[in-house]
Amino acid sequence: MPSSQPPKLHKALADLGLGSRRRIEQWIAAGRVSVNGVPAHLGQRLGCEDVVALDGRKISRQRPDISRVLVLNKPQGVVCTRQDPEGRPTIFDSLPPLRSGRWIAVGRLDLQTSGLLVLANDGELVNRMMHPSTGLDREYAVRVDGRLDDELLGRLVKGVVIDGQRHAFSDVRYYDGGGRNHWYHAVLMDGKNHAVRKLFEQVGHPVSRLKRVRYGPVVLPSTLRRGRYAELNGRDLKTLYALLHLRPTLPRRSPHKETKESLLMPYPKLPLAVEGPRR
To answer: In the CATH hierarchy, which top-level class contains the domain 69-133+218-243?
Structure first.
C-alpha cells in the first residue's frame, strides 16, 4: 500500500524539476533551503501547507494544469542555462510562454553540440526521463575524421576506460561519408559529460560535428529547422507518460499549437522506475 507520509523535501523539490535529488541534498546541507522561514535539514518531510524557499526566494509547488512537452532543435552556439553571464543566446529565449511554472530541459547539450532537446513543464516527467533506473538511451549523429575499421568499432562497444571511468556505446553504426568526413550513429545509455567525443578521440578519430537525434522514444524530425520547436500532441503525451508509468494532465481541447505528426518512435516497455508511479 502507498505510504501516507508526506514526501521528503529533496524528492519534492526534485519532482518540481529544480535539480537532481543529490544536488538538492547538497543545497539543504549548505543551508540554502528553508521551510517556513527555518533552515531545512536532510531527511525533512514536507507538508502541503509548508512554504519552501531557495536562497530566500519562495518556490512555487503548483503542478502544471496542462502537461506540455516540446522538442527543440538546438543550434550550435546556444547554451542550455536560463541566463548566461557572457550574453550568449540560451535555449529558453524563444520558447512559448507558460501560464504557470517554467520549462525544464531533459538534460543538456554543450555549446558545440546541436540537435534534440526535450523540454517539459512537469518536473516529475523530466526527472523520470533523466533517472538512470529508467533506462532511456540517447542516439547521436557523429561526424568524425576518417573511417573506423571493425576492430575500432568493436572497442567502442566493448568499452574504453577514460579518466578512470569506463565509457561504451550500446550501438555504433556507419551511416555515410566520403574523404575525411564520415558519419556514424552512436547510442549511449547515459548522458556522461562529453562521452561521445571522448570515445571517438580515444580511438584516434576526433569528432568534428555532433548532433543528438533521439532521446528514448522522442525523435528529432528531419523537417524541424534549427532553433525551432515542435510540441507533442495529446496522443504522444499519453504514450510518453504511460511508458514512464506516469499520467499527464490533458485538457478536452488543447489551446496550443501541436504537431500533427508523431514525434515518438516505437519503444520497448520500461520497468517501473525507482521512484514508483505517481500517487
So the answer is: alpha beta
Give pTM, 2 decimals: 0.82
Q: Around Cβ 17, how many Cβ atoms within 10 Å?
A: 21
Give pLDDT tens digits for 191-238: 777 899 999 999 999 999 999 999 999 999 999 999 999 999 999 999
CATH topology of domain 137-215: Pseudouridine synthase (3.30.2350)
Residue 144 burial (C-beta neighbours within 10 Å; 0-12, 13-18, 19+): buried
CATH fold for the domain made of 9-58: 3.10.290
CB atoms within 10 A of CB 93: 12
Catalytic positions, written as ranges: 110
- In tens, the pLDDT along 69-101 reads 999 999 999 999 888 889 999 999 989 998 877
**Residue in the structure block whose three cell numbers are 502541503:** 48
Over residues 39-58, the mean pLDDT reads 90
Give residue limits of the domains in the chain. 9-58, 69-133+218-243, 137-215
Structural contact between residues 52 and 35, judged by C-beta atoms closer than 8 angstroms: yes
One-letter-per-residue 3-state SS of 166-192: EECCCEEEEEEEECCEEEEEEEECCCC
